[in-house]
Amino acid sequence: MQEKMQQILDDARRAIEKAASTAELEALRVQLQGKKGSLTQLLRGMGQLSPEERPRMGALINSAREDIARMLETRGAALKKEERARRLREEAVDVTEPRAFAHQGTLHPISLVQAELVDIFTGMGFEVVEGPEVELDTYNFELLNLPKNHPARDAQDSFYIEDNIVLRTHTSPVQARTMLTRKPPIRIVCPGRVYRADELDATHSPVFHQMEGLVVDRDVTMGDLKGTLDAFAQGLFGEGITTRFHPSYFPFTEPSAEVDLTCMACRGKGCRVCKGTGWIEILGCGMVNPRVLSMCGIDPDVYTGFAFGMGLERIAMLKYGISDMRLLYEGDLRFLRQFR
Ligand code: DAH
Fold it and tell me: Start and end of every Aminoacyl-transfer RNA synthetases class-II family profile domain (predicted)?
């Protein structure tokens, strides 16, 4: 019986050492210590022993049980430690490992140009003012000296919402709104979206962007206008760019001018972009028509002003060498991602 017990103990030790996981060890524990365990069986067989042998065997079996319990515990602790270490190793995250960059959005070229223009003009003391895109006829036309049946209204094929409500055809109505609600000095730029019933092609779009400028104060002259636009041209395209005015007509300015900039592509030498002239036409401007001033509640005997308006698409196309306006609206990421 003693031999058998020694055999059981040796088997148990070997099995415990061989257990490769806490789960395996647990199964083994149930087997060794459970009701069907070999030691329990042995204990049951004690009835057949003589009364003298019984206490000695009982003590031996009990000590064997304690040995097994201890071995299970020691092995269990070691396995637990191993398993924990392995898990930490396997689940470790290398926070220094470089990852593929997430896609980052880019600003649209129109937004870039608008931000740059706003930056240039706010640097000269202008303030940004915005107005509604759905506009009253009054602001879009009447107060800008374009009464009903004025021929110049035809030049701007308008989208009418109702008889007297229009999608603004230019950003100039923001001038009227501002003059009606503020006292000079006024120094504002008004960027925004405008609408005209044009077909989409390489140089036209029914929805496009403009930026309006307006200065009203005492003693504002055309020299101020020229100086402001020169500074703007150089701010946008760099040193050596100048402006050239030629007479034009807008109902809201008198006199009016169209302004050319030194061609930014060839710096005035003459190239394909400027069709050999060395100049690029870029905006309309003039001295605010005294009629507009007085309709907007500003005394033209005390105040004068200048105004200008430009298309942002055209500037973006010139600045970035974009040959077809449609590229600006198609949302092709291969195009858009070039602008950062
Ligand atoms: N509103 C004009 C247009 O859309 C642009 C313009 C020209 C604005 C001359 C002005 C200006 O303020 O003085 O074509």
Answer: 113-318
Structure tokens given for 232 = 């703007």
Which pLDDT tens digit goes with each residue over 278-331? Answer: 999 999 999 999 999 999 999 999 999 999 999 999 999 999 999 999 999 999
285 CB less than 6 Å from ligand 1? yes
Task: For residues 98-117, give the mean pLDDT.
Answer: 91
- Closest CA to ligand 1's atom 5: 309
List Cα–Cα distances, 143 to 18, 79, 248, 288, 306, in angstroms: 97, 88, 20, 12, 16
- Pocket flag, ligand 1, residue 177 (CB < 6 Å): no
User: Is the CA virtual torsion 42, 43, 47, 49 positive or negative?
Assistant: positive
* Token pair 């309709």: residue: 295
Instruction: Work out whether the CA dihedral 115, 139, 290, 303 comes out positive or negative.
Output: negative
* Residue 284 CB less than 6 A away from ligand 1: yes
Distance 170 CA to ligand 1 centre (A): 7
- With a 6 A CB cut-off, is 312 part of the ligand 1 pocket? no
Measured in Å, residue 285 CA sits from the centre of ligand 1 at: 6
* 249 closest CA partner among 210, 291, 284, 290: 284
29 lines ligand 1 (CB under 6 A): no
Helix (H, G, I), strand (E, B) or coil at 35: coil
User: What residue's CA is closest to ligand 1, atom 7?
Assistant: 284
Q: What is the mean pLDDT of residues 58-64?
A: 84
Q: Residue 45 carries which DSSP code?
A: G
Where does the pLDDT of residue 155 fall: very low under 50, low under 70, confident under 90, or very high at 90 and above?
low
pLDDT of residue 156: 62
Residue 17 annotated as lining a ligand binding site: no
